[in-house]
Amino acid sequence: MERALVVDGSVGRPRRHVSARWLRDETGVLIGLAIVAVIFGVLIGPQFFRAANLELMARQTVIVCVAALGMTMVIISGGIDLSVGSVVALSTVVTALLLRASVGPAMAALGAVAAGAACGAINGILITQLRVVPFIVTLGTMLLVRGAAKGLADERRIEAPITWLNDLVRTVRDGRGLLLPSAIWIAAALAIAIALTLRYTRFGRHLFAIGSSERTARLCGVRIDWCKFAVYTLSAALAALAGVMEFSKLSVGDPTVAVGLELDVIAAVIIGGGSLLGGRGSVVGTIAGAAIMSVIQIGCSQQGLPNWVQQIVTGTIIVGAVALDRWRTKA
Amino acid sequence: MPPRFEMRGVRKAFGATVALAGVDLQVRDGEVCALVGQNGAGKSTLMAILAGVLRPDAGTLLLDGSPYVPRDPLAARRAGVVMIYQELSLAAHLSVMENVMLGVEPARCGIVQRDRMRETSARALAELGHPDIPPDACVGDLQPSAQQLVEIARALAAGCRVLVFDEPTSSLTQADVRTLFALIGRLKRQGIAIVYISHFIEEVKAVSDRFVVLRDGRNAGEGITADTRAEQIVGMMVGRALDDLYPHTERSAGEPILELEGLNPGAATLTLRRGEVLGIAGLLGAGRTRLLRTIFGLEPVRSGRITIAAYSGPGGPRERWRQGVGMLSEDRTSEGIAAGLSIADNITLSCLGPLGPAFTVLPSRQHAAAARWIERLDIRCADSRQPARELSGGNQQKVAVARLLHHDVDLLMLDEPTRGIDVASKAEIYKLIDELVRVAVSGPERPGARTRRKAVLLVSSYLPELLGVCDRIAVMSRGRLGPPRNVSEWNEHSLLMEASGARAAM
To answer: Testing the interface with A: which of B328, B335, B347, B378 to mutate, by most A Cβ within 10 A?
Structure first.
């Protein structure tokens, strides 16, 4: 508390460790992840950290993670996207329909991502042109897209022919040497790309500026409408990619899947140090946040704890993480 | 008999900013003590500590001779220390009596006794000499002066011993001010210790018995009001001869850089040339800020023409920056700077282009650029990665100004650049303005930097500043901008006459 700053009436220049400042936003969540992992490691034993188990966790996390990458950008810009879960469902349906129409798997996946991006573009246009707050717009499109997915699928699950898309979240041990499911590699590559975008591009810096103070960003000539349009489009495109992975897991198109997924996604960003007020958040934090939830989920089920315990623990962690963060930034 | 309250050696720092560096203050009962000082001198911080809003880093507080450590505003109020703030803290949707009794509602078994509430609040209002305010009226419907009375009545109903008025006259008419002063006199005779905070020396002279001056978070003098001349008090507040404050070197006007022809809103026609500082005076709400925002493309042009150097026609902020125009917002905290971003991000936000190849921004270059301006403008901070919110008001303002310099704009539109900042930062900003119009800013060299003289369009409500810094001044009144005239043709009196429309009425 007591920081010796007074140097003979003039203002002193406190020296702090620059690296500490840089890490500050992520250290908390990484420590949290370590604590959670250690607790379950002690409870369950060393087999909790076996490669196969870790891979299981990574597979579990990857869908939330990919969607959360987009959400990180949205939340940094001071917005929110509630339509993520519905976009995932729409994406599974579109993928299945395209595969059934004997479109190639790559084109089917691309089509699904495009459909998702279109939903995001609509979000972006409504938010920037009608000046309705993102919460309301995406609450609307959440229902709207869910309805569209159900309509497209005729309220049924859509069977699709088996293609390599079904192997995205599966580890193929046929000597091709990918080691991990390709979805995880895709997610990792995207995570790096987005982390770099946020830190090293004008677009990334502008997102932080908009989230921190939209009025200041406007005064400084930042193209706010363009940035918001781009960020919602990107977010939905990433959600649609998560949808393709979901399809891969289910091997059917299911319009009722991923209800409430957006809340897991938002929780991952918030646990990872994102602020719903905007201006804060990081890719590393978000991934760690998603990993915390996943460790709890798998740890609880392997420990034989019922689902309700897991939900109580996750809920406590969300509130605790934010409270801890408030306390830390205040101190 | 000990004084009613006493503060000894109070210190308080916010992050890197020292707000109070050991301040003493004591006030006796039945005494009105004026607390004066420039913005940022530490008056509000000191009173916030007294009222339990902030906790001091060091120092002792005594109330009637015994230690007083308010944990929060409610504890302070229970101890009898009440603040009347500039912005009244009333619940506009509740009635007068509900406001008067807010937090201390008389209740039996949790049920509010409305009759007792009405009685107590009516008595408090009568004590103030205003039985005319009905206890059942909705506070939102009352005049500002009546609202203030409700707030004072609340203080009395709570049994206050120390009453602090923070700039109480800012929303009052002349007649209401006289009533308030009479009321303060009556409260004084009831034995309440009163602290009166004001910028206006005439008010201090009229209402107080004693005065205490703060400057840069320290005691800078005190005395008996009746024995001290106004100039002496101002001298203690400023702490330096006023002439040094406004450097004004020989200037010569160059080619036109901004031309307005019948621009509406604002009815503005003027030409601003390089090497010139043009001031816009006027009362609050006269439309000065709106005029600047219209020029900068933040608000729509209704009619008329804006020509900036070779460009003509309307444009958004993005275009204006490209055309070499930068604007400093009057609203520093919510628009001028992005508080959560680092100093480097704030300084470079409008001009990230040169800081990396295509679309990218290299943090190292960003921080190097920012570090040069931190050095040049003497911005007090840990380093360029520090969030802007941790800086003092004056240093935040320097960050916002540094943005215009980093962008190397030709025309700087400054809206109240010195509002709410300390006098040292003010002096530095005046010096900087003078340098900018005289020569190209002699700071860090940047490849391809424009080395021509700048022009400054300055909006200010502080008349001595306008008269000291500007070459020409135009007055805005009721949304219309008058013709600019040389500064030698103006004085404070004529500016005020023009601004308040008194001249037109004659």
So the answer is: B335
Beta-bridge partner residues of B260: B270, B306
Q: How far is A226 from chain B (nearest CA, A)?
A: 13
Domain segments of chain B: what residues? Answer: 5-239, 240-324+410-506
d(CA B354, CA A40): 50
Determine, for residues B349 and A22 on separate chains, whether the beta-carbon distance falls below 8 Å: no
* Residue B443 identity: G
In CATH, which of 3.40.190.10, 3.30.43.10, 3.40.250.10, 3.40.50.300 is domain B5-239?
Answer: 3.40.50.300
Would the CA dihedral through B415, B421, B422, B428 be positive or negative?
negative
Which of these ranges, A21-30, A185-194, A263-272, B323-332, has the smallest mean pLDDT?
A21-30
CA distance A240 to A238: 5
Q: What number is the ipTM of this complex?
A: 0.82
A304 — contact with chain B (CB < 8 Å)? no
Q: What is the number of CB-based contacts under 8 A between chain A and chain B?
A: 115
Query: Do B483 and B474 contact (CB within 8 A), yes or no?
Result: yes
Measure CB to CB from residue B317 to each of A9, A211, A219 and give the nearest one. A219
- Looking at beta carbons, which residues of chain B come within 8 Å of A20? none
pLDDT at A174 (0 to 100): 63
B382–A13 CB contact, under 8 Å: yes
Give the best residue of B332, B360, B396 to mutate against chain A (max A CB count within 10 A).
B360
Closest Cβ–Cβ partner in A12, A13, A216 for B335: A216
Q: Residue A208 pLDDT > 80, yes or no?
A: yes
And the tokens for B137? Answer: 């009226």
Do the beta carbons of residue A275 and residue A269 sit within 8 Å? Answer: no
DSSP-based three-state secondary structure for B416 = coil
**Apex CA B61: angle with CA B59 and CA B64, to 5°?**
155
Nearest CA in chain A to B352: A202
Give me the residues of B, 349-378, that contact A with CB < 8 A.
Answer: 349-350, 352-353, 356, 359-363
Structure confidence by residue, pLDDT tens digits, B404-460: 999 999 999 999 998 777 667 788 889 899 988 986 544 444 444 445 789 999 999
Interface membership of A5 toward B (CB under 8 Å): yes
pLDDT(A7) > 50: no
Give the Å distances, CA to CA, from A330 to A119, A327, B71, B226: 38, 5, 17, 45
Cβ neighbourhood burial of B85 (10 Å; 0-12, 13-18, 19+): middle
Answer whether B320 touches A (CB < 8 Å): yes
* Helix/strand number for chain B, H first, E second: 17, 23
pTM (2 d.p.): 0.76
**Whether CATH 3.40.50.620 fits B240-324+410-506:** no
